[in-house]
């Protein structure tokens, strides 16, 4: 016994933390799967792989992986478009691409992605999840698009008012959300039980006792739910859009995982995350998930923070949480069939609300309004178009903003009343600033000699140089000395 303690000094804390993470992960694994339109067992499979496979690999010692609400919208779109059988191929492609990116040491570059884009991505996902789970809570079919979900809410409200069954289902979902909102305010001893698990454990028996007409989780059995991709499933590789979905899975899963790793590092004073190795761990996990036909895997900040707060010290806690999920899925699968769907909808609706960074938007608006606008534009684009294109729009806006800021240039006009007028350009002259520069230069008198000094420029791009030379050639009036251009020193 003494030898075991000396070899594993943190085992007691890690075992205790693993139970906490298991209790947090269980309802979320099931809820994310149901919200993604796939069998509930596939969410558990991804949680098991995230714990055991990714948990054993190096990278981030305390970060916990599994199915994430952040990919729910994209997974549902992919399943609707390509079918459930193609999901394994998409996730397999994601895993292999992550492994390649990690091997090429690209993991650290994800830290260069604008935080505003990531926050906007999460906000857009949160809005779509919330809108979709309102329909799920009412037992109604949700429209496919994000805008359709939001636009259809008034009609859904009318349908609920006209159906006692829908009203009972919405009431269960509303009680779940209220319980989750109030849970952090309860005494510390009560909050030892995770809020999502408490909602399932408290509300499920009430619905059974009252015999409420609400739908429950459909159970297929763990082995029946696992469907490795067959030859037909790889047929999607013939379509270019299929690769776009794989890239979207990869970018979003990788960014969410590595940003989560950075956040987890701030919660503890243990070993820091090795980003390239963590990306390969995520890739290995997604490769296994793809081979099993399960949901894509990411690191999840809710489970990771619960792991740290529960006192975990090593990766043993996250591996054991995967073991507990496996035992539950193997020994108690029928327990899932008792869980009401509106309870899971309430859990996901609350999770979607927490994805929207209200405080960050307010803080950015006070200090960096451009970043706040990028955040909002990314979120709106995801709701209006789709996940992949919304993120691309956010990244494009971020690049444009950075280029605009980097092309800071000043034009100083020196006119001593006699002799030539001197125009001094300093900074970085690019095509983005060209209209303002030309407006100022064209306002100079055409009957006076002009000297254009470019020696103070750090950078002068081809478009800007060509435009300035063209202006110099045509500016001077007849009988006036042509504009003299002082080129920057090479």
From TrEMBL:
Keywords: Membrane, Transmembrane, Transmembrane helix
Keyword set includes RNA-binding: no
Pfam families: Sulfate_transp
Claim: Transmembrane helix is one of the keywords in the record: yes
SLC26A/SulP transporter domain sequence ranges: 11-378
Transmembrane parts of this sequence: 15-35, 42-62, 82-104, 116-140, 160-183, 195-214, 241-264, 322-351, 372-400
Subcellular location per the Swiss-Prot or TrEMBL entry: Membrane
Primary localisation category: membrane
Membrane-topology annotation of the record: Multi-pass membrane protein
PANTHER family linked to this entry: SULFATE TRANSPORTER (PTHR11814)
Protein name per Swiss-Prot or TrEMBL: SulP family inorganic anion transporter
Organism encoding this protein: Streptomyces thermoviolaceus subsp. thermoviolaceus
Phylogenetic placement of the source organism: Bacteria, Bacillati, Actinomycetota, Actinomycetes, Kitasatosporales
């Amino acid at each position: 016994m003494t030898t075991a303690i000396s070899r594993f000094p943190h085992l007691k804390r890690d075992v205790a933390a693993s139970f906490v993470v298991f209790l947090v992960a269980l309802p979320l694994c099931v809820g994310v799967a149901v919200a993604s339109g796939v069998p509930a067992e596939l969410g558990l499979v991804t949680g098991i792989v995230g714990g055991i496979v990714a948990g054993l690999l190096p990278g981030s010692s305390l970060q916990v992986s599994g199915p994430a609400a952040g990919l729910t919208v994209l997974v549902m779109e992919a399943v609707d478009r390509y079918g459930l059988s193609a999901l394994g191929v998409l996730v397999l492609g994601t895993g292999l691409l992550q492994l390649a990116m990690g091997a090429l040491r690209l993991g650290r570059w994800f830290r260069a992605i604008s935080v505003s884009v990531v926050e906007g991505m999460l906000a857009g996902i949160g809005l779509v999840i919330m809108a979709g789970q309102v329909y799920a809570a009412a037992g109604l079919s949700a429209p496919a698009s994000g805008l359709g979900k939001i636009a259809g809410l008034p009609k859904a409200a009318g349908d609920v008012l006209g159906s006692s069954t829908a009203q009972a289902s919405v009431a269960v979902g509303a009680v779940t959300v209220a319980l989750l909102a109030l849970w952090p305010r309860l005494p510390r001893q009560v909050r030892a039980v995770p809020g999502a698990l408490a909602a399932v454990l408290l509300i499920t028996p009430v619905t059974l006792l009252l015999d409420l007409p609400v739908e429950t989780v459909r159970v297929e059995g763990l082995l029946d739910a696992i469907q490795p991709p067959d030859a037909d499933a790889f047929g999607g590789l013939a379509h270019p859009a299929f690769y776009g979905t794989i890239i979207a899975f990869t970018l979003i899963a990788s960014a969410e995982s590595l940003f989560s790793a950075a956040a987890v590092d701030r919660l503890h004073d243990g070993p820091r995350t090795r980003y390239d190795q963590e990306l390969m761990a995520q890739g290995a996990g997604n490769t296994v998930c793809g081979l099993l036909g399960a949901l894509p895997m990411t690191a999840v900040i809710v489970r990771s923070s619960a792991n740290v707060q529960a006192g975990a010290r090593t990766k043993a806690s996250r591996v054991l949480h995967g073991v507990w999920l496996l035992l539950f899925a193997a020994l108690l699968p029928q327990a899932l069939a008792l869980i009401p769907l509106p309870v899971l909808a309430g859990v996901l609706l609350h999770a979607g609300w927490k994805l929207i960074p209200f405080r960050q938007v307010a803080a950015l608006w006070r200090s960096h309004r451009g970043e706040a606008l990028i955040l909002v534009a990314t979120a709106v684009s995801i709701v209006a178009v789709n996940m992949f294109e919304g993120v691309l729009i956010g990244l494009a806006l971020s690049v444009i903003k950075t280029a605009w800021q980097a092309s800071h240039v000043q034009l100083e006009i020196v006119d001593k009343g006699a002799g030539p007028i001197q125009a001094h350009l300093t900074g970085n002259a690019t095509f983005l600033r060209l209209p303002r520069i030309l407006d100022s230069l064209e306002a100079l008198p055409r009957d006076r000699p002009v000297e254009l000094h470019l020696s103070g420029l750090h950078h002068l791009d081809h478009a800007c140089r060509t435009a300035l030379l063209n202006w110099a050639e045509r500016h001077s009036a007849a009988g006036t000395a042509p504009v003299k251009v002082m080129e920057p020193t090479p």
